[in-house]
């Protein structure tokens, strides 16, 4: 028998459960409706799930797909599946049946767990390689698939601890599929080391402690919940599960459960700040919110902080386990006005303590751009929390890793203080008459208009200038702004050529995480025309 190493152990986030169960066995780990599990009970449920999967023949390297909202089963999967050496495939519940079938098939998943509310997007007849189904009957007591109900399935597994079947930190932990905005979704491969370190990073940057109560407003299927699925447990904090993101329910749980932390895209913050009862909420303690997923306008940050939240802005992508950088707070900013603070907080910032490596470079030469806050380049990253690659797609992997860095596709400037600021996606930057126009910059100004709730700016074709800005706006309830008013307002704050030439008032297409899908707006505007660049 080989003895374990004296001075090295495999870094894996599943061991966070072992430690917190030992230290906080009777502390509340999970809250969901009327159900409450302490850490000992939480661990037993996870071991039951792991042993039940093993009894069904699931082992090292096998893929297990979960199609579930933010409920305990989804959280338990983040430990049980990798614990037995298998690979978790957490699937976006807002996708179409065709997209879900593609992901399950492409990932080679042999075992699928489906919440009954989303049974309609899983089509067994299209999935000949799936061997077993389990249904979570959380809001419906009808089992839709051949197989067992989730709680019944747990009872087939022993609650005895499972030794981690993990041979290497580089072992595949999970597959997270991209949104597929430029073709088929790509399977981003996460390894145990990256998940462990990024979870630690989330604890450090968000200030999680054993006294923290974390509300699951961020989908667990999105970058494995930015690794908070593991980070909250590592801190010994409490997970508060939330099936659907509804403002009234969010505020109810904040008050009832004493929520201290949550994560959300800027569009969710808009929903929270504009909810009619937001001003009457009595927070028992400061609410720390981490926001990412799209560059937040300073107005959004200012509105949330006005009702008692403390916003931390982070930035990252699926390919880097979620957040990679943070707008780290500087003591010298304390004397700034609320408006100035919000502007500083809207920047994407500097690398996490655990990530280190990020730069803004000329994508052709890979040379760093000037730190002048004006010269744009591409954000590139490398380090422990970069994906292994795209599953079964070596060509896309090689392209993403060209030059020894991960290429984000985001254009940014870097300020003299070293903080980066995203200006646009490569495909979103507007080149009008040879001038570069940042859609993010234009959006930030339009958000300041008192009648604007949400806005997305994209390039649209123009015979004279090649392309010009167009703004799609959701007006605040009860208001009726005109296109002329929006254009005039923008011209008051920006160079005239940056103002939108067209304005359309309509709902905005979004992903499940609240990110505005600009590609859908572009497709409509450029239909039948060829965009250069």
Automatic annotation (TrEMBL):
Entry keyword set: Fatty acid metabolism, Ligase, Lipid metabolism
Superkingdom as given in the UniProt entry: Bacteria
Domain AMP-dependent synthetase/ligase: 22-391
Source organism of this protein record: Desulfomarina profundi
Pfam families named among the record's database cross-references: AMP-binding, AMP-binding_C
UniProt cross-references to InterPro entries, sorted A to Z: AMP-bd_C, AMP-binding_CS, AMP-dep_synth/lig_dom
Identification of the protein by name: Acyl-CoA synthetase
Domain AMP-binding enzyme C-terminal: 441-515
Tagged with keyword Glycosyltransferase: no
Keyword Ligase in annotation: yes
A GO molecular-function annotation: ligase activity
GO biological process terms, semicolon-separated: fatty acid metabolic process
UniProt similarity note: Belongs to the ATP-dependent AMP-binding enzyme family.
């Amino acid at each position: 028998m080989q003895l374990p190493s004296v001075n090295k152990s495999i870094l894996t986030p599943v061991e966070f459960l072992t430690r917190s169960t030992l230290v906080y066995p009777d502390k509340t780990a999970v809250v969901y409706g009327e159900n409450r599990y302490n850490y000992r009970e939480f661990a037993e449920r996870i071991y039951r799930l792991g042993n039940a999967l093993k009894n069904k023949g699931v082992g090292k390297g096998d893929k297990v797909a979960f199609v579930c909202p933010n409920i305990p089963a989804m959280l338990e999967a983040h430990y049980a599946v990798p614990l037995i050496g298998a690979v978790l495939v957490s699937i976006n519940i807002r996708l179409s049946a065709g997209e879900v079938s593609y992901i399950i098939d492409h990932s080679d998943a042999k075992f699928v767990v489906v919440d009954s509310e989303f049974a309609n997007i899983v089509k067994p007849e299209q999935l000949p390689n799936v061997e077993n189904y389990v249904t979570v009957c959380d809001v419906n007591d009808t089992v839709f698939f051949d197989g067992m109900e989730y709680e019944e399935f747990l009872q087939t597994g022993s609650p005895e601890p499972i030794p981690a079947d993990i041979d290497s930190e580089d072992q595949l932990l999970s597959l997270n599929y991209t949104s597929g905005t430029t073709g088929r979704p790509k399977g981003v491969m996460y390894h145990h080391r990256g998940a462990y370190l990024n979870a630690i990073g989330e604890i450090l940057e968000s200030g999680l402690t054993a006294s923290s109560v974390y509300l699951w407003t961020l989908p667990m299927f999105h970058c494995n919940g930015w690794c908070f699925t593991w980070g909250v447990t590592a801190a010994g904090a409490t997970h508060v599960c939330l099936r659907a993101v509804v403002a009234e329910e969010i505020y109810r749980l904040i008050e009832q459960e004493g929520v201290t932390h949550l994560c959300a895209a800027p569009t969710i913050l808009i929903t929270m700040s504009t909810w009619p009862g937001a001003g009457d909420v009595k927070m028992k303690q400061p609410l720390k919110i981490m926001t990412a997923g799209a560059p937040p306008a300073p107005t959004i940050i200012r509105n949330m902080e006005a009702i008692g939240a403390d916003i931390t802005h982070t930035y990252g992508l699926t390919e880097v386990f979620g957040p990679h950088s943070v707008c780290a707070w500087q003591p010298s900013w304390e004397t700034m006005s609320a408006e100035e603070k919000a502007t500083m907080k809207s920047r994407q910032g500097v690398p996490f303590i655990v990530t280190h490596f990020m730069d803004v470079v000329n994508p052709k030469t890979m040379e760093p751009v000037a730190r002048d806050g004006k010269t744009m380049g591409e954000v590139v990253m490398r380090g422990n929390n970069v994906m292994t690659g795209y599953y079964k797609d070596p060509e896309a992997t090689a392209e993403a890793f060209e030059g020894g860095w991960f290429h984000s596709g985001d254009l940014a400037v870097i300020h003299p203080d070293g903080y980066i600021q995203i200006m646009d996606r490569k495909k979103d930057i507007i080149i009008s008459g040879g001038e570069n126009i940042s859609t993010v910059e234009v959006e930030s100004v339009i958000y300041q208009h008192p009648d604007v709730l949400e806005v997305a700016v994209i390039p649209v074709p123009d015979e004279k200038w090649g392309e010009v800005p167009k703004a799609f706006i959701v007006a605040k309830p009860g208001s009726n702004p005109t296109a002329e008013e929006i254009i005039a307002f923008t011209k008051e704050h920006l160079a005239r050529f940056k103002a939108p030439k067209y304005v359309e008032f309509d709902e905005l297409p979004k992903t499940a995480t609240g990110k505005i899908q600009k590609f859908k707006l572009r497709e409509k505007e450029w239909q039948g025309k060829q965009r250069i660049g």
